[in-house]
Each structure stands twice: as structure tokens, then as C-alpha cells.
Amino acid sequence: MSEWKGLLDGEVVLVTGGAQGIGAAIAAQARDLGASVGVVDVRTTEAVPGIFAVQGDISDATQVRGAFEALAEALGPATVLINNAGRNAYFDPVTMTEADWDEVFSVDLKSAWLCGRAVLPSMIERRHGSIVNVASLHSSLTTQGMFPYAAAKSGLVGLTRSLALEVAAHQIRVNAVSPGYVRTALVQEWLERSDNPNQEAELLGVHPLRRIGTPEEVAQVVCFLASRAASYVTGANWAVDGGLGVRFA
């Protein structure tokens, strides 16, 4: 990424779910591109050079307020928010409880609004800001056995479009990135749950690029959309899926 050196100079980038996987890759890349970076995660985060970490549950409004106040005090007002935190869901639609439903949507959808609400006042005041929501290929295509993940991620794309229109007059951009299969802990969990011993080989076979992505490849797209280089992009949902979403089964 040497050709992008300084792409995020002067930006204060906050990443939710930044302790591992795609979130950790986004935080590291934003730091390397010149941003001041903070992460908030429900897990404890080991000290990473150049990244300020706060522990908190981003589905809880009180904890969001406290975490984002701590991040702003340490780094200054946020100019970029990356709503990356999420969770998989493997429920039967009949036996799933209301508590299960509420937990999925609190993490995968409600949290994006709570975190956006926390940073938007300062962005509006400065007429500068960018929000990138990490959705999923499941927002447009899905598979059996992951109910109601697709519903939550579809809602996140809808939130992206709606929020983009609400804040555009303040020169704030809101976009989504929809990764396909990426080699993260969540995807590894899904592979290990499969009863099919050939699951990974079959998975690679349906990808036009014959491989699945890396967290760093998603991070590159996220950081571009977050930057001034994408200054005329808002309300968009960019697929980062190795072409999986454009082929017939």
C-alpha cells in the first residue's frame, strides 16, 4: 500500500470490532495510512502500537457513549467511523427466541446506529466525516442455516442508504462494504460447523477467483471509501467477494 501513503493523514478513525479479523486489519491499515486510530471491542484488546483500544459492548447505548467519549478524549473528534462489529447467526426460525433475535439485531444493525449517533454531532459541526458499514454478501444472497443473518445485514445496507441521504447536506458520506467469504475466525467457525468434509474445497470451487479473501483485502476497500479519494461516493454498497455474487449457482 505504499502508493496510498498518507491517504488518511489527519483523520481520526474509529473501528468497532477491531480486536480481530477484518476490524483489526482495517485498524492497522488506517494507522499505516496516516490516521489516528481507535478501536472498541467487547473483547479485551492487546496493546497494538499506534492504536488506542477501549473495551465496550457497542449494542449497549450507555457503553457506546462511554467508549466513544474515551476515544474522543484520547484522539480528538472522530472524522471516520467504521461499523465493523458483527456476529454470525445459526438459528431455526421456529425455535429461535425473541432474546436471540434481539441479540443478533442489536449487534449487527442497532449498533451501527448507536455508534453513528455518537460521532455525527462532531462531524456535522465540522462538515467533514465518513462512515463505512461492514455488511455482507448475505445482504443480497444467502444460504440455508444462517437465519436471520441476511435480514440483519440487509437492514444495515438499508441503514447505509437512508443515513447517507440524511447527512449528505453536511458533506458527510456513508457507504457499505459487503465482503463475501474472508478467512476470519467467523468463517473458520462456519467451516468447522459443517458436516461436509469437502466443504472448503467446494467453497473454493464456486469462487471465480478460486480462493477466498483476506481481511487485508477488505481493509483496502474500506480505507479507500473512508478517505477523501472517494469524495464523490456515498450511499453505495461495494461487494468485495471475489466475484461470487455475480455468478449463477
UniProtKB/TrEMBL annotation:
Belongs to the short-chain dehydrogenases/reductases (SDR) family. This is NAD(P)-dependent dehydrogenase (Short-subunit alcohol dehydrogenase family). It comes from the Bacteria. GO terms for molecular function: oxidoreductase activity, acting on the CH-OH group of donors, NAD or NADP as acceptor. Keywords: Oxidoreductase. It comes from Labedaea rhizosphaerae. It holds the Pfam family adh_short_C2. InterPro entries: NAD(P)-bd_dom_sf, Sc_DH/Rdtase_CS, SDR_fam. The keyword Ribosomal protein does not apply.
